[in-house]
Amino acid sequence: MSHILLKSNRNYRLIFSASAVSNLGDGVSSVAMPWLATLLTRDPLLISAVAMAQRLPWFLFALPAGVWTDRADRRRLMVRADLVRLALTLCITGMVLSAAAIPPATGGTGMILTLALISFLLGTAEVIRDNAAQTVMPSLVRPDDLEQANGQMWSAEQITNQFIGPPLAGVLIGAGIALPFGVDAATFALSAALIWLIALPPSPTRSRARFWPALVEGLSWMRRNRKILRLALMLAAINAVFIGGMTILVLYAQEVLGLSAAGYGLLLTCGAAGGVLGGLTAPRLARRIGMRASLMLALFAFMLLQLLLGLFSSVTLAGIALFLEAAGGMLWNVVTVSYRQRRIPDQLLGRVNSVYRFFGWGAMPFGALGAGALVAALEPGLGRIAALHAPYLISAAICFLLLLYGFLKLRFDEV
């Protein structure tokens, strides 16, 4: 069935290909960026600052990005964002190549701050690009195909982002730390070219209201629709603990699990296996057990993965944890994004999505910084290894509370 959608729908095929290509580059940089940071410093707070900088634009710019998305040509927004990311990734490549050598781990503060600034700008472009990409999907496929299209595309993203990208990054880092960023830049160029070829139908309903009234309209719609607002607030907590754990994971992998760059890349591919499985099975599973049960299952997976990382120091269990996280995350996303795409009017989709992501993604920078600060604060009293376990144990407690809240509060009219 999925191959029919790809074969018959040219526009979907183009956005599918662009997403797969750009996610290959993202998978490479997801290993290369934190690895570069660990070559510059071993301070968990400074490393978390780079992760925070990349996510901070979701807090600062998610709301205005929604207004821009509803006013502008969404295809052009995606192309321009990819070209900006191409230029910024080339800046990282140039920064690394221009250095005589990577400074020792006790130095490199200036380069860390530069890396954080570029990460912030990359995150800003990502806010605009991702909001436009998610809001354009209902214009490319029929409403009945949304779960299938989202699940299929996210499965491809998982394959390129985590199956292929991280191991490839480990090989490229061995050849030179600048090389993975060059590959990432090339994927942004190809993605921009593919998006440019999409032919969108005319949209006479584009918002022409002034900025503030247009933004208030999106906020008001979200406030009136409590189910979607509740999902947004839950996603904020989920993403905060997720990005906190992923920020610390690069140090956890090196110091607790004893992995090299190649080993770290392979560890991340375990998450890809869960993501692919989740993406392919989530539409069918959601239809069979319903939206509420699907979300409960995802929340349970989030809690279990945090416990595995917090209680044990095993590469095998860490791989299982990442598998569970990706599978649960894919199930959560396929169900909730398709639910939003169906229920939000097209002329409001960009703004309401941006409000949703302001809550859901805006919490990420604080989760990233909080995890690094927690490790730094606990290390003197508990020791380095125990401190690296601590964020996952606290996250497990938060996920348990989310599971309890979801059981009590999440109710949907099943369709």
UniProtKB/TrEMBL annotation:
CC per GO annotation: plasma membrane
Subcellular location: Cell membrane
Residues passing through the membrane, by range: 83-102, 108-128, 163-179, 185-202, 231-253, 259-281, 293-312, 318-337, 358-378, 390-408
Domain Major facilitator superfamily (MFS) profile as annotated: residue spans: 11-414
Gene Ontology terms for molecular function: transmembrane transporter activity
InterPro entries, per the entry: MFS_dom, MFS_trans_sf, TM_effector
Keywords: Cell membrane, Membrane, Transmembrane, Transmembrane helix, Transport
Protein's membrane topology: Multi-pass membrane protein
Record-linked PROSITE patterns: MFS
Taxonomic source organism: Thalassovita mangrovi
Family annotation (Gene3D superfamilies): MFS general substrate transporter like domains
Pfam families: MFS_3
Subcellular location, principal: membrane
Annotated PANTHER family: INTEGRAL MEMBRANE EFFLUX PROTEIN-RELATED, STAPHYLOFERRIN A TRANSPORTER
Name by which UniProt lists this protein: MFS transporter
